[in-house]
Amino acid sequence: MKYTIQVLGLLLFTLCLNAQDSTVVKKRIYTTKPINGSEGPTINGLIEESSWDLVEWSGDFIENEPDENTPPSEQTKFKILYDQKYLYIAYRCYDSEPSKIEKRLSRRDGFAGDWVEINLDSYHDKRTGFSFTITAAGVKGDEFISDNGNNWDGSWNPIWYTATNIDDEGWTAEVKIPLSQLKFGKSKEQIWGLQVNRRFFRKEERSVWQRVPQDAPGWVSEFGELHGLINIEPQKQLEIQPFVVTQYDTFPEEDGNPFRDGDDFKLNGGLDAKIGITNDLTMDLTVNPDFGQVEADPAAIALDGFQIFFREQRPFFVENKNIFDYRFANGQDNVFYSRRIGRSPQGSIGSSPVNTEFIDRPTNTTILGAAKFSGKTKNGWSIGVLESVTQREIAKVEDADGNRRETIVEPLTNYFVGRVQKDFNNRNTYLGGIFTATNRNFGDILNIDFDDPETDETSELVGLRENNLNFLRKSAYTAGLDFRHNWKDRNYFIEGNLVTSHVEGSKEAIEATQNELTHLFQRVDADHVEVDPNRTSLTGTGGKLTGGKSGGGNWRYTAGVFWRSPELELNDVGFLRQADDIRQFANIRYLFLKPTKFYRRANLNFEQTSAFDFEGNFNRIQYEFNGFINYKNNWWTEVGAAHKPRIYTNTVLRGGPRWRFSEENFAFLFFGSDSRKKFNFTMGYVNSGARQNNFTFHRYVLRMRYQPFNALSISLNPEFERNPNKTQYVTEVDFAGTPRYITARIDQQTLSASIRLNYNINPNLTIQYYGQPFISRGTYTDFNYVNNPIASDLNERVTLYDDNQISFADDLYSVDENLDGNVDYTIDNPDFAFVQFRSNLVLRWEYIPGSEIFLVWSQGVNGLGDPGDHLFRSLDNQIFGQQPENTFLIKATYRFVL
């Protein structure tokens, strides 16, 4: 810990000592004018209406990439008009060879081919903005910009109108943006941040209206300004979007199973709404939402026991997610993880079902309704409030005689998230906070005494004799504070946050929390934590403090420390992989900002990290170097390597003692061709190896994309991984009253391939296909038990069983460790072969702006193959040889704008 503080202090001292200004660039100003007493331009891409003559063209664009601050290959100019309802933009994109303008079609937010975009910082907070992109083919792209350009959220889909045209001078575009889709405060004259950005496809060149130096600390903070918006009234948005869904499922019929008769039909409906409380703040509502058109999650398998993070894809939760984001430490840990809402039911069925019992278990928890209040005010307040209620879910079990029992597998649950930030100091500083609450309504379930003769066996609680929800916490609360301060033209920063969590529940629930892999209070060699079976609550903290140089010149550096106390628990509505962790990091990067005849851009990066637990154990140190280069021909290479001389972990033995891995080295190499070409590819290889062959890792990546013509694109991304490990954890057993931690050599192989096809009939009518076969196989040999878990020599760390100690029969390993002729313990055969195929075929038609029809065909196959087979045989037997489950869905929405 002393080392951590010294490194952090030295870096922050250097940060302050070397503060210097970046390049000073004069802010450009464009002054618009209103359309008074006449109709706005007709949006046809021709720029022929007389109303455009009210304002002047603005041009003189400057190249931004690759050769910043030089004249672009082709110039661009634009005009902006407005009335009380709309903002109008006209573009003239000159091109000396109009026949070579790239008009590639894509789905919305595809950004293919030549395009031009306008970025509007209507809050003028120099951190956030709205981006509207139009391609030469007429495809829209729209994104909400946050974190000064470090985050672009493509899930934002406003209603706006556009058209393009190609002529002898290049191409033109007209855009009409309803003011109701933008957010701005009420004042006599508005001043907005403004940037116009063009992609010249043939040379992969970006030119901008307002110069942004390559060493700038961000994007939005460097915008020019839009003046002349006089007396425009904030528009209160009101959109109502009802939807109806018909769904037909087919699946393999099972004889005698009343829940699996071969097919099922559902008719459903719901409502989404967007209500402008003020022009700054919007209320989003959803009642009985349906996400059937959302792409399936990729397949994954984790042998380390930790939960797998999946990105959010549901539109209601994705839009404006940046406001609710609160990454308090590193990686994916977040106080709010929206995938918890509508998760798979967590409860078990109760008593173990037998072969004559059939189960109908819901796959997801039903979201009864959700409301989201979010936005940012003119005076710098960012506000987000989310409230959601999920339904109590019941699993049904029926035996061959028709006797049925029901088990509650998820209680009625309420989720609440509140988030706020306030800008200060000319938008260079912000302070913020977050609060979340999860409350589960168990009713009388947890209080029923089934041994009491007075218990009403005719109630709806029949069959709940095993309390299968007693591991769930009754309530969970988190609160946090965060800040960031920028200085020296935002080139330098310091930021930090603090999180505290508090969970409550029964003794059984809190004891289960203490024993979870996230916490592991039961660790046999830990003096700073221990399981208390009488606790009914748990309170923990976490946070981070970082600082660094984010702009100005060629150098960037950052240093910081973050922590998660052993008691920290976020997984009711957040995401926390591991508690009891303190990490220190420091990195330095050099940017090659000026292109040469050899490369367009490049960078080199070095990073050092170390880790401790709250007992003071020094668990890890790592040194990593990586670099990236984009060559003049637009090919690229990324390379990196790392050395880990010290690797200890508290989690590998799942509650057992601290474990040591052998010293590790890893390296990776990726390279790819020019992504503009009709055919382009990426190839990559990752290799990791530990001393004494403790473990190795090989990953092979190939990504191919082909666009035979403008309307069609096809991609295939196969990956193969092989991960042999001599000490893969298997189980814990009891040997004469002493715990034995069993590990073994595993040969794990995983093969997957994601396949995508996009066919664009026109910008508003697309067909999209996604499919992924996935196979993972693991075979175990050379079983051993842990002897000295922190020994530096692998042969002292574990002891192999000899042939006289272990035998295998009937899918079970029997161990006679002391060779007395009696079986001391048994080990279930851990070999596995998991096979899965998921696919989605979606036809999407936006028949009028904001209103859509989806035709969806989803297909899935899950199977358990033979671990002794090779991967392709499992693919044939378990995917091609099985009847799939199919879902056919029609969803229609209509957006009323009032």
TrEMBL record:
Q: Taxonomically, which superkingdom?
A: Bacteria
> What sequence ranges are listed for the domain Carbohydrate-binding?
49-196
CDD domains (alphabetical): CBM9_like_2 (cd09618)
Q: GO molecular-function annotation terms?
A: carbohydrate binding; hydrolase activity, hydrolyzing O-glycosyl compounds
Q: Which Gene3D superfamilies match?
A: 2.60.40.1190
Gene Ontology biological process terms in this record:
carbohydrate catabolic process
According to the entry, every stretch annotated as the DUF5916 domain falls at: 237-428, 476-894
Going by the UniProt record, its keywords in alphabetical order are:
Signal
Hey, what's the signal peptide range on this chain? Answer: 1-19
Q: What InterPro entries is this protein classified in? A: Carb-bd_dom_fam9, DUF5916
* Full protein name: Carbohydrate family 9 binding domain-like
Q: Which organism is it from?
A: Aquimarina amphilecti
